[in-house]
Amino acid sequence: MDGCVFCQIIAGELPGHLVLETDDLVAFLDTRPVFKGHVLLVPRAHLETLPDLPADQRDGFLAAAQRLATAVVDALGAQGSFVAINNTVSQSVPHLHLHVVPRTKGDGLRGFFWPRTKYAEGEAAAYAERLRAALDS
Fold first, then answer.
1. CA-to-CA distance for 43 and 47, rounded, in angstroms?
2. Measured between alpha carbons, how far is 97 from 85 in angstroms, rounded to an integer?
3. Which strand (E) or helix (H) includes residue 19?
């Protein structure tokens, strides 16, 4: 879809730190992460909300989310993860995306207040590589 940032990342028109690619899905690091290693899982097809996801893609979408939730623990030393989807309200990009946010006890995240952080130069690439390695194992 014209103008969709996520579609442009999927198409390679905008840079993204990709961590997972399948025929139907792409996962990449959020550029404004809640915590470093925050991943967004998106369908390749431009769909705006979870109800728009075709039935034949639901299992693959959830399976990829499970793999990513495991990868943030294995690759980044997180104790767990926060997994969420916004539909329309609070959806900064109108393309279905599932957040996988690495969590540790005492990390300061409370409810749905999501403070954002930034990666240092080259740091996002290193996080993406660690996640890719965990997904490949």
1. 7
2. 6
3. strand 18-21
Q: How many Cα atoms sit within 13 Å of 2 on the Cβ side?
A: 0
- The 10s digit of each residue's pLDDT in 60-99 is 999 999 999 999 999 999 999 999 999 998 889 999 999 9
Place of tokens 């997972």: 20
CA dist 49 and 88 (Å) reads 7
CA separation for the pair 38, 25 (Å, rounded) = 17
Number of Cβ within 10 Å of residue 23's Cβ equals: 6
Confidence (pTM): 0.86
Determine the residue type at 79.
Q
For residue 80, what are the β-bridge partners? 103
pLDDT in tens, 15-64: 999 999 999 999 999 999 999 999 999 999 999 999 999 999 999 999 99
Tokens 């879809």 correspond to: 1
